[in-house]
Amino acid sequence: MARSFILWLHGLGDSGPANEPIKTLFTSPEFRTTKWSFPSAPNSPVTCNYRAVMPSWFDIHEIPITADSPKDEDGLQKAVKNVHAMIDQEIAAGTNPDNVFVCGFSQGGALTLASVLLYPKTLGGGAVFSGWVPFNSSIIEQFPPDARKTPILWSHGIADRTVLFEAGQAGPIFLEKAGVSCEFKAYPGLGHSISNEELQYLESWIKTRLRTSS
């Protein structure tokens, strides 16, 4: 079995360790050689929470997040550099880029999108849950040609009141402009959370993309 790597990026105010139970749902034999990583965001003041200091990958100006919410591109780019360093380290340790998957919820989903689209190589995939597009469309020119070949899975609850469903729907339209393939899945009745149904689908989605020999 070739080694694979799944990097999970949590949402605002959360922590990496709190999300570790997710890996227990991935029971297929293909995941026996998977290395998981659940980093925690640094603490910083967040504008939408009255500048309260909390774990945050970059600044968020308003909640609910709409398709047109203001974007902290500088903070985002710093966070992307840190994610790239984690991916680089894993590839240097011998994991094929095709077997590297970045997944994230909410703010972590937005960071997932930016991280895979700005990475110089094609990765196995990026999975965005209840996320949004965290940059302006002018950034599309900066996407490396190989990054545009990384497939994206985007899942969003229709009843989401924190990151509005319209912010999710704007994702595939943005990606189409960049020539990136995206599978969009809407979940009726789901609010701003991640469901077991979404995670089961993620398991099968990753499984079909894993390279079993290195």
Automatic annotation (TrEMBL):
Arranged from A to Z, the UniProt key words for this protein are: Fatty acid metabolism, Hydrolase, Lipid metabolism
Provide GO CC annotations from the record.
cytoplasm
Lipid metabolism recorded as keyword: yes
Entries under Pfam families matching the protein = Abhydrolase_2
Q: Does the keyword Lipid metabolism apply?
A: yes
- The organism sits in which domain of life? Eukaryota
Q: What does the record give under GO molecular function?
A: carboxylic ester hydrolase activity; palmitoyl-(protein) hydrolase activity
Which family does the record assign?
Answer: Belongs to the AB hydrolase superfamily. AB hydrolase 2 family.
A GO biological process held by the record: fatty acid metabolic process
Stated name of the protein = Phospholipase/carboxylesterase/thioesterase domain-containing protein
Q: Where is the Phospholipase/carboxylesterase/thioesterase domain?
A: 3-208
Organism encoding this protein: Jatropha curcas
InterPro entries documented for this protein: AB_hydrolase_fold (IPR029058), LYPA1-2/EST-like (IPR050565), PLipase/COase/thioEstase (IPR003140)
Transmembrane residues, as ranges? Answer: none
